[in-house]
Design brief:
It is found in: Mitochondrion. This is Large ribosomal subunit protein bL19m. GO terms for molecular function: structural constituent of ribosome. InterPro entries: Ribosomal_bL19, Ribosomal_bL19_sf, Translation_prot_SH3-like_sf. Keywords: Mitochondrion, Ribonucleoprotein, Ribosomal protein, Transit peptide. The protein has 305 residues and is an alpha+beta fold. The protein is built from 6 helices and 5 strands. The protein has helices at residues 2-47, 60-63, 78-94, 239-247, 257-262, 267-293; strands spanning 105-111, 119-130, 137-144, 147-154, 160-167. It has a 5-stranded antiparallel beta sheet, with no helix packed on it. A hairpin with a 2-residue loop joins β3 (137-144) and β4. α3 packs parallel to α6 (267-293).
């Protein structure tokens, strides 16, 4: 009996020693995790943003959105998309297509056999960017002689000679169609506007300006679109307009998972696409940066507020 008790007591001591060792190992790893967390917090406080993700290729989905396939599965074709990406890369070797977003001010020069000098240059703010592959396009807007003018360009149109970013920035909304009903000063830009080059490494600024709309009638029902870049919508609404807006709200759509899934491209497909074109795009960006260093850096002008 004493022998059995002694063996059980030795077994208990062995288990207790193993548990203590595991606890010490766990406690010894805690400072390393804390140091990593502190390092991330220091990086956030120093730069004002979180460090980049481990996969830098996924950052290209914002800079080159046209390389991703159409979010609608009914319009996808893997062979056509692969051939289009090859054509897009060849086109980018002939012309520098810079990084820009909706809200950036661009100057586009195209070949025009009927214009003086055989070229035509248009300056305006980008109010829309859409399309995938070779069908990617963007729209510029400017007010010329008190008349709103909009020009839609295909991003990979062979008649485009140069695309110059005069002011690189974003806006609060993904589309700026409401500038058609806004006051003209929000869409007026000089034709001889000087480019504003941001220092290398700075984040793309977001212009928080909120435009003022002209009195109704409007081209669209802007009060139903939850716009962040418009300040005086409520001033032009009547009580019946507010009632109709409440009746036509669709808050249940944000819980429709299948609708959200159909509007996205899976990460696996993105990794396969960027793995195909990442190296060539990276080389083009590096060559563009080398030429940009030779330009004179000017301080950005005060934004319209």
């Amino acid at each position: 009996m004493s022998l059995v008790f002694r063996k059980s007591f030795d077994l208990f001591k062995t288990v207790k020693w193993i548990l203590r060792k595991d606890i010490r190992a766990c406690l010894s790893s805690l400072p390393e995790k804390v140091e990593k967390i502190n390092a991330v917090e220091v990086e956030i406080t120093r730069t004002g943003r979180r460090p980049r993700s481990q996969n830098p290729m996924l950052e290209y989905r914002h800079i080159y959105p046209e390389f991703l396939p159409d979010p609608n599965p009914n319009w996808r074709n893997s062979l056509r998309e692969k051939l289009e990406r090859a054509d897009m890369l060849e086109r980018r070797k002939q012309i520098d297509i810079p990084e820009f977003y909706v809200g950036s001010i661009l100057a586009v020069t195209i070949s025009d056999p009927h214009a003086q000098g055989k070229t035509n240059r248009f300056v305006g703010i980008c109010i829309e960017r859409k399309g995938c592959g070779l069908r990617a396009e963007f729209t510029l807007r400017n007010v010329v002689d008190n008349q709103g003018v909009e020009v839609r360009y295909e991003l990979y149109d062979p008649t485009i000679q140069t695309i110059q970013v005069l002011r690189l920035e974003k806006r609060l909304d993904d589309k700026l169609y409401y500038l058609r009903d806004a006051l003209p000063e929000y869409s007026t830009f000089p034709v001889d506007m000087d480019p504003e080059i941001l220092p290398e490494g700075t984040a793309v600024p977001v212009n928080p300006v909120q435009v003022k709309l002209k009195p109704r009638p409007w081209l669209e029902r802007w009060e139903r679109q939850e716009l962040k870049g418009v300040s005086n919508i409520e001033e032009h609404l009547k009580e019946k307009d507010r009632v109709r807006r409440e009746l036509r709200k669709t808050p249940w759509e944000k819980y429709d998972l299948m609708k959200q899934y159909r509007k996205t491209v899976p990460i696996e497909d993105q990794n396969e696409i960027w793995g195909e074109v990442y190296n060539q795009l990276q080389q083009m960006r590096m060559s563009t940066k080398k030429t940009a260093r030779k330009r004179v850096i000017t301080a950005p002008k005060s934004q319209l507020g």
